[in-house]
Design a protein that fits this description.
Elements: E1 14-18, H1 24-30, E2 39-43, H2 46-54, E3 60-67, E4 71-72, H3 74-82, E5 86-95, E6 99-102, E7 113-116, H4 118-131, E8 136-139, H5 143-151, H6 162-165, E9 177-180, H7 182-187, E10 191-195, E11 204-212, E12 223-230, H8 238-247, E13 253-260, E14 268-275, H9 281-293, E15 296-304, H10 319-333
Parallel strand pairs: 1-2, 1-3, 7-8, 7-9
Antiparallel strand pairs: 3-4, 3-11, 5-11, 6-9, 6-10, 12-14, 12-15, 13-14
Helix pairs in contact: 8-9
Length: 337
């Protein structure tokens, strides 16, 4: 076979994640089968990661969406709400544990300023108040970036702004220690001054794998569907009319959050996760109902749950029950002989 007729070499798969290396987001990506044998690319912000997906620079991107302590991750929720042509194709759950790390030779008593991401700080501030009551908090774009800054490793500026002044500048005097994942401390050669410093044990962060819109993953029997709902106008009972579409069809919601649309003050949309798959009759019927009562329904995907927990489906909301009811209505509509 000549070079002219040789088949083209398949393009290597690439997946992005909210970086830098050593974040919990990278751990979440590594836990997914899609990442096996694929190149991983770190991005400084959720927006940059999702833009790379939309532009075809990467096949998908892993981003945080929800934390069991702090709730929804606003940057991800807003980016998904604004972004056309993107869908969630999978999720990952990562148990969260933090360490306080510093350059070799630093003692706990010498720590006066602590750098970390705001979500991490919210989960350790009780420990800090007890053990380092005089320490000041310095925001960083990520926990891994805070650790990298202490090691003197160069960092790209993050979209938060604060990271550019701390980790982005490479100034090691901005803070004395970092709250980060154990893997980040190890990667950067830092000394762990204290471990297990999170205020609540058992904290978990949920991450979602986002791809360009296309084929929806097949139902697994343990699925979630994510939508963003927009009101026609603000009026009493507006949210109730949305929720009724789920309740009357026996669909449980696992997350609901309001987010500003950015159009004007007081104008909100609703980001919702529900149990089930768009291929399920009950979910399909609910989406049709929402299409009628909403100004816009943005479908963000149906995908397998990371915990593999199947939905509890009542006898009157199974696929067979919906199909039988639809067949019965069709019989009523047929003209008499």
């Amino acid at each position: 076979m000549t070079a002219a007729t040789a088949p083209a070499t398949p393009t290597a798969r690439r997946y992005g994640f909210l970086g830098p290396a050593g974040t919990f987001t990278e751990m979440a990506l590594r836990s997914r089968p899609e990442s096996e044998g694929a190149e991983s690319v770190a991005f400084a912000s959720v927006d940059l990661a999702l833009t790379a997906v939309r532009d075809g620079e990467v096949d998908g991107a892993m981003v945080p969406i929800e934390n069991s302590v702090e709730g929804g991750v606003s940057a991800t929720l807003d980016a998904l709400t604004r972004s056309e042509g993107l869908v969630i194709v999978g999720e990952a759950l990562v148990p969260i544990t933090f360490v306080l790390a510093a350059p070799a030779g630093t003692t706990l008593e010498q720590v006066r300023r602590i750098g970390t991401h705001p979500h991490a700080w919210a989960q350790v501030r009780g420990w800090v108040a007890q053990h380092l009551p005089d320490a000041l908090y310095v925001p960083s774009g990520s926990t891994a970036a805070a650790a990298a800054a202490l090691s003197g490793a160069p960092q790209e500026p993050s979209a938060t702004g604060a990271e550019g002044a701390v980790a982005g500048s490479g100034e090691r005097t901005a803070y004395d220690a970092a709250v980060c994942a154990p893997v980040a401390a190890s990667n950067q050669g830092l000394t762990v001054l204290a471990d297990g410093i999170e205020d609540r044990t058992g904290a978990v962060t949920r991450f979602v794998l986002v791809s360009r819109a296309g084929v929806v993953p097949e139902p697994t029997g343990a699925d979630k569907t994510t939508v963003v709902l927009f009101q026609r106008e603000d009026h009493p009972g507006g949210l109730l009319s949305f929720l009724e579409q789920f309740a009357t069809r026996g669909i449980n919601l696992s997350r609901i959050e309001s987010r500003p649309t950015g159009e004007r003050l007081g104008d909100y949309c609703f980001s919702i996760d529900c149990e089930g798959h768009v291929a399920d009759e009950r979910v399909g019927e609910a989406l049709m109902g929402l299409r009628r009562v909403c100004a816009q329904v943005r479908f963000l995907g149906s995908y397998g749950r990371a915990d593999l927990a199947p939905a509890t489906v009542a006898a009157d909301t199974t696929d067979d029950a919906f199909i039988e009811a639809r067949d019965w209505l069709g019989m009523l509509r047929r003209p008499l002989p």
